[in-house]
Amino acid sequence: MAEFDSDDEILELAIAREEDANQFYMILAERVTSAEMRKVFEDLAKEELEHKAKLELEVIKTGRVVTATEKPELETKGDTETLGPDVDMDYKDMLIMGMQKEEASFRLYVDLAGRVINEDARETLLALAEEEVKHKLRFETEYDLLLKKS
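The chain above was modelled as a monomer; its predicted structure follows.
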């Protein structure tokens, strides 16, 4: 993982990650046929924006003004870029991708929490890591139900 010069850089990365997650879930919501799962994806998209707001609050606490974020370079290509209109993905694949994304977010936030100096920022990142685990569990539960139906 990249080295960071400040807590601000860490928070900016996390904010960009939440923006990407919001877009990712909105794309999935558009593609799913089940109204129930559409609602789940839309709710997750909304929660990711709430996470972004919590991170932005941490930036504001440092006295900085939050502006439109410029996405820092991530080590891998963003998921939203790989979900173009020509991608053929069934519901099972969506669930698997969601599980993988949430696992990656969890690991990222735990790692970032260990790198920040500010205690409030650390607590926020750890709380978000916990939220990402809950999101992953939602996908795992739906995936298990899908397998039982088959």
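The chain has one domain: 7-63+82-149.
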